[in-house]
Amino acid sequence: MGNRGSDSKRRALKRRLEQVEDTCWLCGYALVPDAEPMTDYATEVDEEVPASLGGDVYGVYTPCHLVHRCCNGEKSGRILPQYGLAEWFEENHMTRESYQPRELPSFWC
């Protein structure tokens, strides 16, 4: 798992996040809890500050969120403003808090 830390600690973090989050932190679409692992819509844990930039892989010092695997791959090792979502929200006169999550279209599942 490389710089991702202990597998058991990461699984525990994912279980805690699954209790409070049901949408992808990056795209706002619903997570697919029963998606096959390693597929585009599998659920992964993402750090707001990537581990490669000093972020905390256990969510203690920097927040972590659940995301789709494909969204996480697009974001890669960048922080949110570098990813461009902050500008998208601003252009659409929205904040992350006011954004309403949407269901994934059935053809994506």
Describe it for me?
Helices cover 28% and strands 9% of the residues. The chain has four helices and two strands, in the order αββααα. The longest helix has 12 residues, at 7-18. The radius of gyration is 14 Å and the shape is globular. It is α+β, with helices and mostly antiparallel strands and 109 residues long. Strands 1-2 form a two-stranded antiparallel ribbon.
Shape field: globular
Distance between the termini: 27 Å
What share of residues is helical? 25-40%
Give the radius of gyration.
Answer: 14 Å
User: What percentage of the residues does DSSP assign to strands (E)?
Assistant: 5-15%
| Count of alpha/pi helices | 4
Structural class: alpha+beta
The biggest beta sheet is recorded as: 2 strands, antiparallel
Number of strands: 2
Q: How do the SSEs run, as a string of H and E?
A: HEEHHH
Mean pLDDT across every amino acid position: 76
Low-confidence stretches: none
The largest sheet has its strands arranged as 1-2
Give me the secondary-structure topology.
Blueprint lengths: L6 H12 L24 E5 L16 E5 H7 L4 H4 L1 H7 L18
Antiparallel strand pairs: 1-2
Would you summarize the structure shown here?
The chain has 109 residues and is of the alpha+beta class.
Give short descriptive properties of this protein.
109 residues; alpha+beta; two-stranded antiparallel sheet; 4 helices; 9% strand; globular
